[in-house]
Every structure is written in structure tokens, then in C-alpha cells.
Amino acid sequence: MVALLNTPPRRPTYADIEALPEHLNGEIIAGELVVSPRPRPRHARVSSKLTMLIGTPFDTGLGGPGGWVILDEPELSLGVDRDYDPLIPDLAGWRIETMPTLPTTAQFKTCPDWVCEVLSQSTARRDRMLKLPFYARAGVAHCWLVDPEQETLEVFENLTKSDSNAAAQWKLVGVFGGREAIAAPPFDAVPLDLALLWGPAEPGEPDAT
Q1: Residue 78 in contact with residue 85, Cβ under 8 Å?
Q2: Cα gap 90→46, rounded to integer Å
Q3: Burial class (CB in 10 A: 0-12, 13-18, 19+), 201
Q4: What's the rounded Cα separation, in Å, for the pair 27 and 22?
Q5: CA–CA gap between residue 179 and residue 201 (Å, rounded)
């Protein structure tokens, strides 16, 4: 009789992370390799800056009206379409009256009042063609698309009425670029300084010193 040996599974190492394709990010969590897309540095930087620029006046109330909960990469499980459940926007915001308390689970079942996607080469098509229409159908009131490479901000407002059977649709409120301060709904109570969002001008740009 031959005894069978129980071979423990091989533990992942940092070599496994280094072997991943460049566009993927790896973590070792509870002994398992967890793989997710790796954002480009400029994508991550713009997303982090936007969190601070919006979150400070509208979440913490410092220098602004407060009244919002602003979160990075929340897991949305809205019960609208199982083919889009869950979705993870780069940023999302809820008015306090919409979500008075945070959920006790990782999933957010309350529809945000605002979502923001920071576009990249690998995600822009999906964000525009798939996620943007879903957010309208789900009832998100405002959506921003931020392009760090082109230094543009597209601001959309949902025209769909909750009691209407019409197809969900967005109204393009405006496309903003450059380095001026703008008023972009739903956060138009405090000007958003695009120069702070994009960072210092690159050499050769018209406003570079």
C-alpha cells in the first residue's frame, strides 16, 4: 500500500508579483496572490488629488459646505443589473441625506449621487461605453470623466426622471480643461482649481514658466 502525501500549496512570493504583466498589480493577502489592474502613476496621482480637492470642502466641510460622503473605489452593488454588479468607480459621493450612515459590509447598495471615472488607455472605452450608460440607468445624478493625459474634465447630468419609462440619458454640462478654476456641478459651491488637479505644467506648455 502506498501512502499519499498531502503536499501543501506553494505560497506565493514577490517573484510571482514581478512576473505579472506590466498592466497588472499584485498583492499577497492572507497567503494568496490577489491580482488587479495597475493604474498608471499619473492616473493614481490625479485620482488622489481629486479626492482631496473635493473631499476637503464637501466631505470634511473644511473651506466648504460639507454634507457629502466621498469615497475612493467603493464597491457598488445596486441591484439594477446583475451583469453590472458589483462595479467599482474611481470615486463616488453620496449626499448625507442619501446615505446617512455607512453600510456595515463592503458593498454599497445605495446609489451614489455622483461618480467619477479617471480614464486610462485600458479603461476609457469600457468607462464610456459600458459603465457610463449603466450609471444613468442606476439613477446616478452626476458623473465626471477625468482624462489625466488630455487634462480634461467632462461633467454629465442625468436627465432621466425616476417616474419616467424613457431610456436613461446624460446631458453633457461642459468639458473643462486648462488650468483655470471652474464651477462644476454638483460641487459648484466651491471652485475647482484645475491647475492643482493636473500639477505643474510640462516644459513647452503655453503656461509653463
Answers
A1: yes
A2: 11
A3: middle
A4: 14
A5: 9
Kindly tell me the burial class for residue 72, based on how many C-beta atoms sit within 10 Å of its own C-beta (0-12, 13-18, 19 or more): middle
DSSP per residue over 58-124, as a string?
A: III-TTS---EEEEES-EE--SS-GGG-SB--SEEEEETTT-SS--SSSEE-SPPSEEEEE--TTTH
- Whether 192 has a pLDDT exceeding 70, the answer reads yes
Residue carrying the nine cell digits 448625507: 96
CA distance 107 to 109: 6
Dihedral pair phi/psi, residue 83, rounded to 5°: -75, -10
Q: Measured between alpha carbons, how far is 68 from 95 in angstroms, rounded to an integer?
A: 4
Domain spans of the chain?
Answer: 1-38, 39-198
DSSP 8-state assignment for residue 123: T
* Tens digits of residue pLDDT in 6-36: 666 777 877 886 888 877 766 565 677 767 6
- State whether CATH 3.90.1570.10 applies to domain 39-198: yes
Beta bridge partners of 75: 107
